[in-house]
Amino acid sequence: MNNSKGKNLQEALEEEHRIRKAFKDKDWAEIKSADSWVIFKVMSEFVEGFEKLAKIGPCVTIFGSARTKPDHPYYIQAEEIAYQLVQHGYGVITGGGPGIMEAGNKGANRAGGKSVGLNIFLPFEQKGNIYIDPDKLITFDYFFVRKVMFVKYSQGFIVMPGGFGTLDELSEALTLIQTKKIGRFPIVLVGKEFWADMVEWIKKVLVNEKMISPEDLDLFTIVDKPEDAVKVIDDFYSKYLLSPNF
Q1: pLDDT in tens, 161-189
Q2: Is 169 helix (H, G, I), strand (E, B) or coil?
């Protein structure tokens, strides 16, 4: 058996074990012990996040694929957006990993601004990148705790092209703003060609089927250039007579 087949078999066995474990009956002692540990672990992650991020000041989160290579135009764009955001008075928050996240932290670091990384333990892809401020790197076990940190400490969201994780983060931000659980912060999608089919589907299906309201399309803006992405953030806060230096 070659290494590839052996690895695939091991992954399949581990997946089956997780599925079987989910259906296994547990006695009260097992439930109490396991759940109590999870509660304390979740609490510790919230405490660490709140303590480290409470004084970071106004920041913009950049979402995007972990798989984007440094020579890709999306990576270069993300780095430039982060650089310009810092020049306009904002810090930058990313998911702390490679790809677009690395580009965001790299741009913020290059501009001498705050570079925050909210990393997460994953079996692949995700490692903290070298451009995060050492005192602003947090690594989470739980996606939902990490999401709270993104939302709580961001004044806007820049969404670069990405996969399931990026779509999840975009949907989360849109849902929280749509339902008024958070303020109406600007959401900017970068890459008109990349997002075009999704936006067209939203218009033709979600709006026409009355799953969302037509005005929900105003919750996000689509741009192509880094300067336009930063301008959306600046214009939003200028409208409310706010400065990024509050």
Answers
A1: 999 999 999 999 999 999 999 888 999 99
A2: helix
